[in-house]
Amino acid sequence: MQVSPAVTRCAALLAVALGTAAPALAQSPKQDWTPVDRAIGRSGSMQAGDVQKYSFPRADLRVTVAGVAVKPALALGSWVAFKAMGAGTGQTMAMGDLVLLESEVAPVMSKLQSLGIEQTALHNHLQHETPAVMYLHVQAQGDPVKIAEAVRAALALTKTPNGPPAPGTVGAGFELDTTRLASTLGYAGKVTGGVYQVSVPRAEPVRMGGMEIPPSMGLATALNFQPTGHGKVAITGDFVLTADEVNPVIRSLRDGGIAVTALHSHMLGEEPRLYFMHFWANDDAAKLARTLHGALGHMKVRTGGA
Known about the structure:
With 306 residues, the protein is an alpha+beta fold. It has 8 helices and 18 strands. The protein has a 6-stranded antiparallel sheet. It has a 6-stranded antiparallel sheet with strand order 10-11-14-15-18-16. The protein has a 3-stranded antiparallel sheet with strand order 4-3-8, with no helix packed on it.
């Protein structure tokens, strides 16, 4: 029996009225990250942009910079983030940053290379720290379980704690006035592991190989604040910059007494080309927040953060 177009339209309208959806409009199921959790040895957390992120704080390290004991949440957090490359493909893109002692770099790099994980940068983020710490940036595409297994095998060559990360420190009783910091910066953050962490995304999209990379995969400017007593705070993190923004931000930071500790790339083949500028200071919290706010003013960033 032939069904008239009018009857088809009526059926569609009835489906909408009853709260049902036609099969063609059904959404694809969300990515199941449980097998990846098992492969990497811990549960991940969902981030903006449908990114699954796994954190590996180097709680085993006792790193100091100019007398400041660096908390893992300030500058010693390894991580790997995954994003599905297309519904039903089973393929993902992964990016990450591994915090390593100098003695760990060669064995970790060799293991990753043997298992198909690419390295995109190796460098310092801090200066004059004891012991010296290096940062190995990685990327991969393919089966997320195999990528997770490779990362786990590489980290097994280090003393990175293999259990789940300890619960983060809640904001109650935090030594800094985070409301004031957020107001000064123009962007709000959250307290994690005794550190106030602020993330500032860039305004324009960033793509690699035709795929848009969300800020939660390491492409947002990170501003981290660790209280050091008497209203002072140690700050570090990285500004994510285009070439024309690099030197204006350097001048702004230096004028405010903030040291620039590194300038380099983290990725290969991204568009636009990005540069990552790391920094350090231990000074009055309000003063440093004002300087950071001024530096952000030289960048194309999303507004309305705080």
